[in-house]
Write a structure and sequence with these properties.
- The chain has 419 residues and is α/β, with parallel strands linked by helices.
- It folds into 2 domains: 247 residues, Peroxisomal Thiolase, Chain A, domain 1 (3-Layer(aba) Sandwich); 156 residues, 3-Layer(aba) Sandwich (Peroxisomal Thiolase, Chain A, domain 1).
- It is built from 13 helices and 14 strands.
- Strands 5-4-6-7-1-8-14-13-9-10 form a 10-stranded mixed β-sheet, with helices on both faces. It has a two-stranded antiparallel ribbon with strand order 2-3. Strands 11-12 form a two-stranded antiparallel ribbon.
- Strand 13 and strand 14 form a beta hairpin.
- Helix 2 packs across helix 5 and helix 9 crosses helix 11.
- The longest helix has 17 residues.
- The model has no long low-confidence stretch (mean pLDDT 97).
């Protein structure tokens, strides 16, 4: 029998606040964290809005051994901060986690701010001006390494980069380690800090981001709405602590949710566009359900779906097709929302953050809305919980992540077993 895996801690850094409690309060209030960006030169940018994090500063890391703010890119700072919150909730020690604790984190563009800043130094001031900390700051494993240093996790420490699916793959990697008997505990999820002039310009020139709402930022992220025209980029981290059932019970920990299933697939269709048939996206969803020993039509009425729901014209349509393929006639019984309507798109951190949303929905019996839903789109005709939260005691929560490169990840969470 496969080892059961439970979530015991949650940590979040977002444009809606730097704690899970604050994030959840804001989500249920239907508040958007999207605004005019405050920390960039916007004078020549086509897009001037995003989900910016406030309230993290160097003093937040003063009590941690080994790590310091000046040796961390913004993405690593977010990860260390959120991991601390998750560990505190779990009841695990904040130091000396030891050899049976892993750290696996996802990010799509880790270290982008450092890359931009040091490239500017090189071009404007010459090679001697480049910081000797450049590589440790921008290397893809920097966030995971700093989390392991901060909290003394000596098991496998890895970085995963699969665009918007990164933190979903990171979580699955940890599950597999646990089922192979390698570790008992893992700090996992993702982090991202790509709100830079380089990041914004690149996505804007791809025509992937919305351009219509610079003057109305809170209305900009509008998944499933007929007037959507692109995603809104955000920064932050979503970190969870997961444990084997045996370890959790032996130490007397409290489970928040169980990870009951997962599925992965790749479109092999196009580097950045999803396959409109949703063949592989639906396969990852179906695998998540069936790996839990369940059948889609039997659980549809008891399932909340936190959709990838980016607000791009093609993604939301394809995701709807995929859900219909999996759940068939019962797809109309699903309750679906996109928290990206309020948080924006955190790229590699999205699956980690949205796993937290799924777990809070299971815990509280309240489902967050999809805000900015004003004009129905016949291609996106599932119940998207428009504009207002909904009380619903669901048993399962499905978290979809569909990334550039055609990477599809689906995680299925369940309420923890009372036994």
């Amino acid at each position: 029998m496969e080892e059961r895996i439970f979530v015991s801690g949650l940590g979040a850094v977002t444009c809606l606040g730097n704690s899970v409690e604050t994030l959840w309060t804001q989500l249920l209030a239907g508040r958007s964290g999207i605004r005019q960006l405050q920390h960039l030169d916007l004078s020549d940018l086509a897009i001037t809005i995003g989900g910016e994090v406030d309230g993290i500063d160097a003093s937040d890391f003063d009590d941690l051994p080994v790590v310091s703010a000046k040796r961390m890119d913004r993405a690593a700072q977010f990860a260390v901060y959120a991991a601390g919150e998750a560990l505190r909730q779990s009841g695990l020690p904040l130091q000396g986690l030891g050899e049976r604790a892993a750290v696996v984190l996802g990010s799509g563009l880790n270290g982008l701010l450092t890359l931009q800043e040091q490239t500017e130094r090189l071009l404007n001031r010459g090679p001697r001006a480049v910081s000797p900390l450049t590589i440790p700051l921008l290397m893809p494993n920097a966030a995971a390494a700093n989390v392991s240093l901060a909290y003394g996790a000596q098991g496998p420490t890895q970085a995963v980069g699969t665009a918007c699916a990164s933190s979903g793959h990171a979580i699955i990697s940890c599950i597999r380690m646990m089922r192979d008997g390698d570790v008992d505990v893992a700090i996992t999820g993702g982090t991202e800090a790509s709100l830079t002039r380089l990041g914004i310009s690149a996505f804007a020139n791809m025509r992937a981001m919305t351009r219509k709402y610079n003057d109305r930022p809170t209305e900009a992220s509008r998944p499933f709405d007929a007037d959507r025209d692109g995603f809104v980029m955000s920064e932050g981290a979503g970190i969870i602590v997961i444990e084997t059932e045996r370890h959790l019970r032996e130490r007397g920990g409290t489970p928040l949710a169980e990870i009951v299933g997962f599925g992965t697939s790749t479109d092999a269709f196009h580097l950045v566009q999803p396959d409109e048939s949703a063949t592989q996206a639906s396969r990852s969803m179906l695998s998540a359900v069936r790996s839990a020993g369940l059948e889609p039509q039997e659980i549809a009425g008891r399932t909340y779906v936190n959709a990838h729901g980016t607000g791009t014209p093609l993604n939301d349509k394809v995701e709807t097709v995929g859900l219909k393929k999996v759940f068939g006639d019962a797809a109309g019984d699903l309750q679906v929302s996109s928290s990206k309507s309020m948080t924006g798109h955190m790229i590699g951190a999205a699956a980690g953050l949205e796993s937290i949303v799924c777990i809070k929905a299971l815990e509280t019996g309240v489902l967050p809305p999809t805000i900015n839903y004003k004009t129905p789109d016949p291609d996106c005709d599932l119940d998207c919980i428009p504009n207002e939260p909904r009380k619903a005691s669901v048993q399962y929560a499905l978290n979809n992540s569909l990334g550039f490169g055609g990477h599809n990840v689906c995680l299925l969470f369940g309420r923890p077993d009372a036994d």
